[in-house]
Prior knowledge:
The structure is a single chain. A two-stranded antiparallel sheet has the order 1-2. A hairpin with a 6-residue loop joins strand 1 and strand 2. By secondary structure, it is mainly alpha-helical. It has helices spanning 3-11, 15-20, 38-55, 80-83, 90-99, 103-106, 142-153, and strands spanning 23-25, 32-34. Mean pLDDT is 76; it is low at 4-11 and 14-28.
Amino acid sequence: MSTMLRRCVARTKGYAADLVYDFVTMAGNQNKTEVRNAVAQNAILVETILKEQRNQKLFLNYSINPFRKIHTLTGKPNSMHDIEDGEEDVHFKKVIERSHQEPVRKYLYPQTESQEYGWMTQPLVDNDRDDRRLYFPKQSSTITRYMDAALKST
Length: 154
């Protein structure tokens, strides 16, 4: 038996491991082929189903997909059952409100690389108009006053 085959057999448990890895050398060829019979295939199927049943989790908490467009239909104008107010689903309302929010309010951190640009919109330093290092107001000179007057006259 090859070392790879021994490793596979050692990792696999049960009766299916002995049947699945029955290798036969073809005449004149060094390649190995796998022989499977009905019993081995059934044993593999049983093991697969048991693994799936062990790890299967039923999901019963269904709700609306907030990323899909919802088309509402208006009722008939004189229909009594369309006018009546029903119970309000609080969870549904929260999901819809959250889906319509902008990403900055929805998440704490940017979810994509493109959201990183402009994520923090508040300035890091307060705008102090008395500090001449960070505040550069519009300067007027004789040339700018002349051009302003020329633009106003035309």
